[in-house]
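Continued from yesterday's entry.
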Amino acid sequence: MINPGLKKRRFQAIAIISVLLLLIYGKNLTERQAFKSISNTFTEVYQDRLVVEGYIFEISDRLFSIQKLIDHCNLDYDYTRVINEIQGHEEGIMELIVDFEKTNLTVEESDYLMDFKRIIENDLNIKNYDLLYTDSSGVNEKQVKLYDKKIALAKQDLENLSKIQMSEGEKLISKAKVQINRSQIWAQFEVALLIILIIVIYIFLFKRPSTNQETFS
């Protein structure tokens, strides 16, 4: 017949071990969610910040090419080709903007991008090279300066967008660091639980009671 004290002791052991196992299981679920969150954060850093910074760089390069074609309009050049080149750069910019708009935009980011898009679509849409230069009148300095002013505003939008990428990227990296530190704490907690579990198993299941004790509370 099983000693009542031993029976109680085993019941206590099972109860404590069950609680510890549940805690370890809960910790593992929490850690899986943490790793998923960290993975999503780094994916967001890449897709919504690093890739977007590449878009901004390429857009800036095309905008610089447009300004160069406008500012050097007095050079001996194929006028028709100039318009086609400007339109080609503008179309390339608009394609990049479409990709840009698909990313996770902040409210401020969306405002700057909308303003930039408006400048490209409305203010820099040069239909006729005669607006810039004619053989009879030469360079239309007033119009060239107007285009340069619009390009300067577009560049400012791009600069602000680039600053946002840095700011948001830093926020995401800080968030990832917090999640990683939290995960490390949970890992230490799991080690502690495992040590306690081993001790409990040893005390309650493997260590035999002293012969001079009849019952155990």
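--- second protein ---
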Amino acid sequence: MDDEPPGLFGRFLAEQGVELDVVMLHRGEAIPSLAPYDFLLVMGGAMDVWETDAHPWLTPEIAAIREWTLNRNRPYMGVCLGLQLLAVALGGEVGLARAAEVGFGKVELNALGHAHPLTRGLPSAFRIMQWHHAEVTKLPEGAEVLASSAVSPVQIMSVGREIMATQFHGELTPALIDRWAQIPQYLEWLDQAMGPGAYGRVRAQARLQLPKCERVSRTMFGNLVASRRLVRAAA
């Protein structure tokens, strides 16, 4: 989606001097050869993984994720839809969640998350932005759950030490949340999920929560790329 940019993760890549290539599949842009790249970042979107008739570009995207993770085994990070696409690409399943999860909610590490190198240094529990109505319902082979929420069991999923994805939105910045005020569809979706005036409440919470969220995201991202020298990344 045009309004789902890399956000903080794009900033973290830039800080390392990484050249970021952004591919907008919904605009008809083709997935390039993955051979030159060191890192793949897959962001969120309002569509569901099974809506391939309405969004036919989902099919080649899933195939590219499968190639990247299974065949090339290179670092991957997915956010929200990027988590769900990873799960499907590796043989898992995604379906409607028992309840939508929207707003700043609590995520808690499990025992594996406390010990895993990808989540090393994270607090045991933290509040972070959620915005989804679908979730991973069956883990792919080899995947591990590192954190959950009261609504969704799979909030952080890893495959080995270089492939991870989050159901929550760790990429958000104050500027991105300010931008939502100019997008009527986003305001409508928030009101549907949280009641009238939802945007104002979320924005007020963001002022308090986003500095803490950035620390969480920076820690996770740093853990993921610590063992790699990145040069080029695709998002």
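The CA atoms of residues 39 and 233 lie 5 Å apart. The mean pLDDT is 95. Will compare against the first tomorrow.
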